[in-house]
Please model this.
Amino acid sequence: MNRSALTVPPPGTPEPRPHPDALIGEKLGPHYAKCFGCGPDHPTGLHLEAVSHDGLSVTAEFTVGDVHQGAPGLAHGGVLATAMDEALGMVVWLLRKPYVTGRLETDYLRPVPVGTTLHITTRCTGVVGRKAYLEAEARLDAPDGPVAVRGAALFIEVPVAHFTEHGDGVGGMTPDREVNP
Ligand SMILES: CCCCC/C=C\C/C=C\C/C=C\C/C=C\CCCC(=O)SCCNC(=O)CCNC(=O)[C@H](O)C(C)(C)COP(=O)(O)OP(=O)(O)OC[C@H]1O[C@@H](n2cnc3c(N)ncnc32)[C@H](O)[C@@H]1OP(=O)(O)O
Model:
């Protein structure tokens, strides 16, 4: 993909490892019930479901519904970027520190019809200080289907105060998924 240097780790950056207490090889629950990306209580959200893997990687599935259209019968590009953002955020969750998206790059390679299940794979390629470098790929209807979207991102580690000062705090986070218990 056309990827800026900002989302590629500097040469020599060591391979990142998940936190020793991170759940690997397991289904990752939603981090917040009302989250547009993963929350089960969101009526028109993406309801993204993900599984973590060794190597600081996540696979996730998202089925495009009627409520996700841009052009008639096709997924909205912003919704697809959201799906990538969510699946990328689930990877940094495995570092068990709070992160937010700083930069998100998206390349759209194929249209994604309503009814498609996107198989998304995301991976962390390096962590330098507060910066986590990430990449993502979404394939049509199967883990080895045609690539429809590629993504890359820079996530920035933030203190928990980021959420208490700017949002409604961390009360909605499920207790067993706390970042820093
Ligand atoms: C029990 C506790 C529970 C807490 C739970 C909390 C969270 C849950 C965590 C995980 C949830 C699990 C899954 C997540 C699911 C979904 C993921 C969605 C994530 C999002 O959807 S989240 C919303 C959108 N997101 C924002 O709402 C961010 C708004 N923004 C800011 O809040 C600031 O902007 C911030 C904090 C980003 C930086 O501000 P700052 O002042 O702290 O730091 P600063 O600016 O110094 O940047 C430090 C270094 O990052 C470089 N840098 C920064 N931004 C860059 C950019 N855009 N491009 C290239 N480089 C960039 C600088 O160049 C510098 O680099 P260097 O150190 O090399 O100079």
